[in-house]
Amino acid sequence: MIKQIEYTDIERCAEVIRESFSTVAEEFGLNEQNCPTHTSFTKPENLIWDYNNGYLMFAYFLGEKIIGYVSLSHSDNDKKAYKLRNLAVLPQYRHAGYGRELVDFCKEKVKSFGGEKIDIGIIEENTRLKDWYAAYGFVHTGTKKFEQFPFTVGFMELEI
């Protein structure tokens, strides 16, 4: 079941995000020295900020266990666009459709708010993830190299 998180779920959600993104950090050689702001090092304070600033935050619950997480926020430049952030599924639950369910859920939420587009940012070099989003219908829209990241950020969007 996917549901909006409560404040009391923040610590568990941060753990799910860290564990989920740790595989990415390992694959791309990211650590707290060369990329301290990478999602794999998310702290509860980061999610508390999101929570207090109106981000829509959802968790995938299997019983009482949180196995996935995602958040939505308005895009900075486009009122009809939403950013999908921190899509995470614990490694042992991957390849079972939970990530797709989380994206489907967000797509329906964005539709219900009158949104027309979902934007994402990913590690451009993560071709497996880029292909996963492309198979869902996301279209690659560009890249940007940020000084603080040892990778290129790729941008994709899904028209709704």
> What name does the CATH topology carry?
Aminopeptidase
CATH architectural designation: 3-Layer(aba) Sandwich
- Strand tally is 7
**Under the CATH scheme, which class?**
Alpha Beta
**Which spans have pLDDT < 50 for at least 5 consecutive residues?**
none
State the secondary-structure class.
Answer: alpha+beta
Order of strands across the main sheet: 1-2-3-4-5-7-6
Largest sheet: 7 strands, mixed
Count of separate DSSP helical elements? 4
Evaluate the radius of gyration: 15 Å
Mean pLDDT: 95
Our count of domains comes out at 1
Q: What's the end-to-end separation, in Å?
A: 23 Å
Helix/strand order, N-terminal first? EHHEEEHEHEE
CATH superfamily descriptor = Gcn5-related N-acetyltransferase (GNAT)
**Could you say which overall geometry the principal axes of the C-alpha atoms support?**
globular
Considering DSSP H and I runs of 4 or more, what fraction of the residues is helical?
Answer: 25-40%
Short summary:
The protein is α+β, with helices and mostly antiparallel strands and 160 residues long.
Give a structural overview.
By secondary structure, the chain is α+β, with helices and mostly antiparallel strands. It has one domain (2-159): Gcn5-related N-acetyltransferase (GNAT) (Aminopeptidase, 3-Layer(aba) Sandwich), CATH 3.40.630.30. It is built from four helices and seven strands; from the N terminus they run E-H-H-E-E-E-H-E-H-E-E. The chain has helices at 10-27, 44-52, 98-112, 127-136, and strands spanning 2-4, 56-62, 65-74, 81-89, 117-123, 139-145, 152-159. It has a seven-stranded mixed beta sheet with strand order 1-2-3-4-5-7-6. The longest helix is centred in the N-terminal third of the chain and has 18 residues, at 10-27.
